[in-house]
Input
Amino acid sequence: MKILSNFLEKHHDRVVGLDILRSIAILLVVYYHGRFILPPHFRSLYDNIQILNIDGVSIFFVLSGFLIGGILLKIINKTDFKKVDLINFWIRRWFRTIPNYYFILIILLILRFVTRNDIGDFNWKYFIFFQNFLYPHPNFFPEAWSLAVEEWFYILFPLMCYIFLKLLKKKTKSIFVSAIIFIIIPLIIRILKFNNGLVSIDIDSEIRKIVVYRLDCIMYGVIGAYIAFKHPNFWYKSRFSFLILGIILLIALYFNILNLKYIYFPLIFNVESIATFCFLPFLCCYKSTNNKILDSFFIFISIISYSMYLLNLTPVQRVLIPTFNNLFKQTNFFSYNIFLINYLFYWLFTIIGSYILYTFYEYPVTKLRDKIHF
Output
């Protein structure tokens, strides 16, 4: 228990409620990707027992909007939000996300070239997160689609806040107006594509994973940050009401009560985001579970969640596990239990590898941002 106490003491300033939300998001993502390891007859069963009929990535988007929106509100409230403030914001964000991404991207690119003597669907757009800005994401490192959405949010939203601050001359209002615009435009684009007879398209690749169609989902978190900042009493007092509404929306999504997939698909992303938004008032006030083991678990998973996101699918499932299989393919026991063992090692490799990546690369590189400031 002393180890847990020391761990919690080291991370005493964290909000466990938000760590719970982030942990749920990454565990859902890894759980969802895990189905690719299973044989077809097990995969259908696996799909039918999905824990929640809500996308883990959507949770990440809203949580990111809430945290980044809160950071921007503090920066704008304390400064005049000049160009130098905007640049410093970008530097801190990019030190948090880009080094880890580039590290994995380059390793995958090298492995692809060494093993197949080509680079597949890789192109230079991966380095500027433009590979799925307007068109479906290539097959190379497919999970990077959501990070591209996040990165363009980091670029475009603060820039729009900066512009509206100059126009409106009102600090916090610039964030609210920018968020509303970012909610409206992607929704309109989705509606236009849906209404133009394109209902037979691959929704997953041609809408869900394209940047311009998904930026609005992050904005619900920004709206949450705005309400928490401007109306903290309302945010706190309404936490249970929002929590109940969020649970109702989750139940509706799980049992497909709203039938959005068949009534009006463009709205399903909004409902998922609103459901996540409704949990924020309660969870951001939830400091601890009062259980050291649970607190430590959620904090740990939350801390390594970005590395888990980068490692679980392509590096672990498509590179490491096939290599592991080839090493032991002559073992009868291993061959007989191949799917079960692969699934077990999929989770172990993901968690252990993410801890190593976070400890020895992600965290030290992220700390460097404190030394760079204009």
Q: What stands out?
A: The two ends are 43 Å apart (CA to CA).
